[in-house]
Specification:
heterodimer; A: mainly beta; Methylamine Dehydrogenase, Chain H; four-stranded antiparallel sheet; globular; B: 818 residues; mainly alpha; two-stranded antiparallel ribbon; 33% helix; flat; G_patch_dom (chain B); G-patch domain-containing protein (chain B)
Chain lengths: 302, 818
């Protein structure tokens, strides 16, 4: 079955929960992780080697985004500032203050010319990275429609999709100049679009994962059975987009068939001692990364 | 010297002869006398020199290497760094100096030391110098000097007036000069209290003592009021005579300044006062020769003697018995004895007073003990009594109390109904209050019900309090009342329980269900939430509103700014975009993109064209007056060809532009953005590419996801200014340095950043031999414009290039599209 369940490697190094793990762009041979220990670490997940450490955060790291050319990095966390890193030197190029609370989600756009940051202060701010040297210290735009903290963020080629604790998925379509908000009824912890951009995988705190049709706002499928009621967990598609994978709060990795929404056998076992806070699927291969609250990052393969 | 001596000795000269030692030296140091054996300064050959133990010398034995003690850290004192001068200075500073002024003035100040009294002076000198009191120090810091008075400085006028009042006018000074300055107020003399050492009766003149005889001898002439400005040489005027000088006290002042003296300026000049003073005259003398006070006259008729009373006649039989007096103190109090304050305060009741006065008491009802017992007690006692009297007797029916309804004005009741609700905390009571008010307002006998468990008496009391409350909470005036609204709901304050609260299971369950209900109510507040709860996602849970992305944001995302946003920005000329320097050139015309569904044709309409027909007034033509064509030439000004600008401004440095370069290369790699407002199709349009200008770099990679191909290509082609370390494309597990992607030859105008680029581009296009398809997006202009391809009449249209838009090398006008 398509879900990778074989533990290949575990990346040990973080002390405290690992909040986010993210594959690099391109061939995605590397992964970046950010944790409660205020560090961002660059790993080779295959060998399990820690390559580099990015130390500048003063608080926990909650989100990482990698530029399309892997040369730059952006991260956000409890510092209330977006940290813009140079990958090679390991130094911050700029720290962008402006948010009033911790930053839950950051994301580059396609060509890393802007970065969007979603914060606990219920705003998404979009920062220009091209005119860094200019005196412009204010964001290009601030999206303040949300009534509660922004938990997740997706920046597409022409739109910005935010998921908020107020239960709304808001799609800011730059092309149309239109804001579409879909009410999901429960706090949203992650949104992941399919590659064709037609549907969104929305994870909510009522222990349900829904496949949302972006065009109509209808829910095409609902995946349930897992435990998810308090942490920011993330559901992803596998590389062929045949199944939905989710690491839940009990440390189990769930997999559902995308079409039938039936959980895939075998029954998920507890593979992490604590909650899995982030699930990341390799963009090209069948490999899965899970970051857990127990400080471990595990690589799973078929 | 030694040689000299030797020779002289050989010559037989007596060296002790004083004549030999006679000194004729005028300059320099004379040689020592010959009879001296030793000359310290005599030259001694080196081999004869001996060490002199008196002179301190360096000896190797005293040398001690400091190498080992280097780390001991010798503590350096400031003195170690001082030269002699500094040290002397320091010594100087260490000397103790008595900085206190010798308070001589203070010594004599209060004590009135007589200089002639040598003993006193000697004693005073023996006393250590008096330190200034802290008050004096403070005063000095505030600018006071000894000898001055305290207070603000005075003008000459004020000082003069004050002196005159004191009876010590100022010496005549040149007024013109004097008025220019301010003067410190005069000193107030310390009031010295003279110890009274005589206890004489009034009018008794003590016998002339030794001191009195002394003063009498020293004081001669009229008594002059003491004060400022009168010296020994000044002649005493009549005014200077001290009127009130009785001769007993010395000539010191008895009055300090008064508070009212600050207002002297308002007063009349003091001359009148001086004239109004009674003149001192010796009007006459008493018969015994004593001088008469001024203004008094000796009476001609002698004053009648006061009446005298004869002492009472003592009876013969009276025997003085002091025991009577002594015993009376321990005798029982009589009515006349003093009473305590408390007793006095209690006063005497009318009855008591009457009794004391012996009045006949007024005919009143006889008082019984029942009068002093409250109604309740009375009732109780009555009941007890009856029970005692006859236990078998049935208890009497409880006394019926009628509900007494205190009446109030119907108007007041009506108003009070609208006014403040005083018993909000107790809804039941409030309802009774309302019922009472309603009954009073309608003047109808509505049956007022007491609360269960409330006695009639309590109810009566309550009704009375209601009546009072209705009067007190008299509603506001109509004008005031209209500003307020009585709350529609009654807030019930939660009753606080004492002690630790331990919820019972039922209470807990009730609380839970209530909370659930509450959340349920909240959830079901809107249909949207209801739909979400029911799982009916779709139209019910979806909301769509307009949203305006900033121009710069659209630029960064390489999407056209939406129509609404564009319109908005033209209207308010968004400052944000200016801040980022995105729009260097303000478009005088607003571009409007219209999409026809049949074809993807673009129509670029100049906004200025529309105003000619419709004459619509908008922001673009405000201020033009009636003449809409005014300034048209400015608006439609065509810039000269790019060659001119290039010839002037272009430089080689343009090529080494790094940051913006990336964008443009990226732009080249990107497919053109379709000029319509519908979402971009997922499939990228493959455009014909001119190989002379566009050289894609291929990355050999197997198993690549075809969907990512495009993005990757873009990534690869992104040229970097310097070698960039990246963790891409490496399978071995280490960071590799990827050299900078081959810098591709680019169109020279590709990197132009400013708005002149567009024109430039057009020029390039029209002049180039082969038609160029630019996929470059204009950084600063409206995106539609870049789609413009060379006009057919300027350059032949390439056969493989589908022309979307007709264009010219200038800004198109609406007429071009007609």
């Amino acid at each position: 079955m398509p879900c990778p369940r074989k533990a290949v490697q575990s990346l040990k190094g973080h002390t405290g929960p690992v909040h986010v793990v993210s594959y690099s762009r391109g061939a995605a041979s590397y992964c970046l992780s950010g944790g409660q220990d205020r560090s961002i670490r660059l790993w080779n997940p295959k060998t399990g080697a820690e390559i580099k450490r990015y130390i500048a955060h003063g608080y926990e790291v909650l989100s990482i985004s990698c530029a399309h050319d892997n040369a730059k990095l952006v991260s956000g966390g409890g510092d209330k500032s977006v940290f813009y890193w140079d990958v090679a030197t390991g130094q911050t190029i700029r720290r962008i203050p402006g948010h009033a609370a911790r930053i839950n989600a950051v994301s580059f756009n396609e060509d890393a010319s802007v970065v969007a940051s979603g914060s606990f202060d219920a705003t998404v701010k979009i920062w220009d990275l091209k005119w860094l040297r200019a005196q412009a210290r204010s964001p290009i735009q601030s999206l303040e429609e949300s009534r509660d903290a922004i938990q997740t963020l997706y920046v597409g080629p022409q739109e910005i999709i935010t998921g908020s604790v107020d239960g709304h998925v808001r799609t800011y379509d730059l092309r149309k100049g239109q804001l579409t908000s879909d009410y999901m009824g429960h706090p949203i912890t992650s949104i992941v679009p399919t590659k064709d951009q037609q549907t969104l995988l929305v994870t909510t705190l009522d222990a349900k994962i829904r496949l949302l049709d972006r065009k109509t706002g209808q829910v095409l499928n609902t995946f349930s059975g897992h435990k998810h009621d308090s942490y920011r967990c993330r559901a992803v598609f596998d590389v062929k987009e045949e199944c939905v994978i989710f690491g839940d709060e009990e440390g189990r990795i769930w997999a559902w068939d995308l079409v039938t929404a039936a959980p895939l056998p075998p029954d998920p076992e507890r593979v992490h001692e604590k909650a899995i806070l982030w699930t990341e699927y390799h963009p090209l291969n069948d490999a899965l990364l899970t970051a857990s609250s127990d400080g471990m990052i595990s690589l799973w393969e078929m | 010297m030694a040689h000299l001596k030797k020779r002289l000795g050989q010559a037989g000269v007596d060296l002790s002869n004083p004549r030999l030692n006679e000194s004729f030296v005028l300059i320099g140091t004379p040689l020592p006398p010959l009879d001296k054996t030793k000359d310290a300064n005599e030259f001694v050959p080196l081999w004869k020199q001996e060490s002199d133990p008196k002179k301190a010398r360096w000896t190797p034995s005293t040398f001690k290497s400091s190498r080992n003690d280097r780390n001991k850290g010798k503590t350096m004192r400031p003195e170690d760094f001082m030269d002699d001068e500094d040290r002397a200075e320091m010594q100087e500073s260490r000397k103790l100096v008595d900085m206190d002024e010798v308070a001589e003035s203070h010594r004599g100040h209060g004590m009135a030391v007589d200089e002639t009294d040598t003993i006193t002076a000697a004693l005073a000198n023996m006393l250590p110098p008096v330190n200034e009191s802290i008050g004096a120090q403070l005063l000095k810091k505030m600018g006071w000097k000894p000898g001055q008075g305290i207070g603000p400085r005075l003008t000459y006028e004020q000082l003069k007036r004050r002196s005159e009042q004191d009876g010590t006018p100022l010496p005549a000074v040149d007024d013109a000069e004097a008025v220019k300055h301010t003067y410190a107020p005069r000193d107030t003399k310390l009031l010295t209290v003279v110890r009274k050492d005589d206890f004489h009766g009034l009018g008794y003149t003590p016998a002339g003592s030794l001191r009195a005889s002394q003063t009498a001898s020293t004081s001669s002439g009229p008594r002059i009021s003491a004060g400022f400005g009168l010296g020994a040489l000044n002649e005493a005027d009549e005014d200077d005579l001290d009127v009130y000088d009785s001769g007993l006290t010395s000539g010191s002042r008895r009055l300090a300044f008064e508070a009212g003296e600050e207002d002297e300026d308002d007063r009349k000049p003091s001359k009148a006062d001086a004239q109004g003073r009674p003149k001192v005259q010796s009007a006459g003398f008493f018969k015994n020769g004593a001088p008469l006070l001024g203004g008094f006259v000796v009476a001609e008729v002698p004053v009648p003697a006061p009446p005298t009373f004869e002492p009472p006649v003592v009876p013969q039989s009276w025997n003085p018995d002091p025991n009577l007096v002594w015993n009376s103190e321990s005798a029982p109090p009589t009515g006349n004895e003093p009473i305590s304050h408390q007793e006095w305060r209690k006063g005497v009741s009318a009855d008591e007073r009457g009794k004391i006065l012996g009045e006949t008491p007024l005919p009143t009802a006889t008082r019984s003990i029942w009068d002093y017992i409250s109604a309740k007690d009375r009732e109780r006692i009555q009941g007890i009594k009856e029970n005692k009297d006859g236990g078998s007797q049935p208890t009497a029916p409880p006394p019926v109390y009628i509900v007494k309804v205190p009446p109030i004005e119907p108007a007041t009741a009506k108003a009070a109904l609208l006014g403040f609700q005083p018993f909000k905390d107790d809804p039941a009571k409030q309802s009774r209050y309302t019922a009472y008010l309603k009954a009073q307002a309608s003047s109808s006998a509505i049956d007022l019900q007491a609360a269960p468990g409330q006695s009639i008496e309590d109810f009566n009391n309550e009704l009375e309090s209601f009546a009072k409350a209705a009067q007190i909470f008299k509603p506001m005036s109509a004008a005031m009342q209209s500003r307020f609204r009585t709350s529609s709901t009654i807030e019930v304050a939660k009753k606080q329980q004492e002690g630790l609260y331990q919820p019972t299971d039922e209470a807990y369950a009730a609380h839970e269900t209530k909370a659930e209900q509450d959340t349920k109510m909240e959830v079901e507040e809107t249909p949207k939430q209801h739909a979400a709860k029911m799982g009916m996602f779709g139209a019910m849970t979806r909301e769509q509103t307009d949203w305006l992305p900033m121009k710069l944001l659209c630029k960064r995302f390489r999407v056209p700014q939406p129509k609404i946003a564009a319109a908005e920005e033209v209207a308010d000329d968004s400052s944000a975009s200016n801040l980022y320097g995105a729009s260097v050139e303000q478009e005088p015309v607003s571009m409007e993109v219209e999409t026809s569904s049949a074809s993807n044709a673009i129509r670029v309409v100049a906004a200025g064209e529309g105003t000619e027909d419709g004459g619509k007034r908008d922001l673009t033509n405000i201020g033009l007056g009636e003449d809409d064509t005014q300034g048209r030439d400015t608006l439609t000004y065509e810039r000269p060809g790019m060659d001119i600008f290039k010839a002037i401004f272009a430089s080689d440095e343009e090529n080494s532009d790094n940051e913006e370069e990336n964008v443009d290369i990226n732009d080249l790699a990107r497919p053109p953005v379709e000029a319509n407002t519908k979402p971009r199709p997922a499939m990228q349009i493959v455009e014909p590419v001119d190989l002379s200008t566009f050289k894609p770099v291929f990355v050999s990679r197997s198993g690549r996801d075809p969907k990512r191909e495009d993005g990757e290509k873009k990534t690869k082609k992104k040229s970097k200014p310097q070698p960039t370390m990246s963790f891409m494309d490496d399978d071995e597990g280490g960071l590799t340095v990827i050299p900078t992607a081959k810098k591709r030859k680019r169109d020279k105008d590709g990197d132009a950043r400013s708005s002149k680029k567009r024109k430039d581009k057009d020029e390039a296009k029209s002049t180039s031999k082969a038609p160029v398809t630019t996929y470059e997006e204009d950084d600063d202009e409206m995106w539609v414009e870049k789609e413009i391809v060379p006009a057919p009449r300027v350059a032949p249209k390439p056969p493989d290039m589908p022309s979307r838009v007709e264009t010219t090398n200038r800004r198109p006008k609406a007429a071009d599209f007609l």
